UniProtKB/TrEMBL annotation:
Keywords: Cell membrane, Membrane, Transmembrane, Transmembrane helix. It comes from Acinetobacter bouvetii DSM 14964 = CIP 107468. The chain crosses the membrane at residues 6-29, 41-62. This is DUF1656 domain-containing protein. It comes from the Bacteria. Pfam families: DUF1656.
Length: 67
């Protein structure tokens, strides 16, 4: 998988991907909260967890394809 050297500190690539996925998730939550309040999303916590795992997987796949 690898790591990235940031000013002499080795940071795991998975940590960077997880942080990026969380940032995207927080933006999506702002949009999807309206649906959760209206009842379109039955269990928002489980839905957001699954969405985070999907975003993390897509980010990992993207980094693996590029690097």
């Amino acid at each position: 998988m690898g790591e990235m050297n940031i000013y002499g500190v080795y940071v795991p690539m998975l940590l960077i991907q997880a942080t990026a996925a969380y940032a995207v998730l927080r933006l999506l939550i702002l949009l999807l909260d309206k649906w959760a309040e209206q009842g379109w999303i039955a269990m928002p916590s489980v839905f957001y967890l699954c969405l985070y795992i999907i975003l993390l997987g897509c980010g990992h796949w993207l980094c693996a394809a590029v690097l």
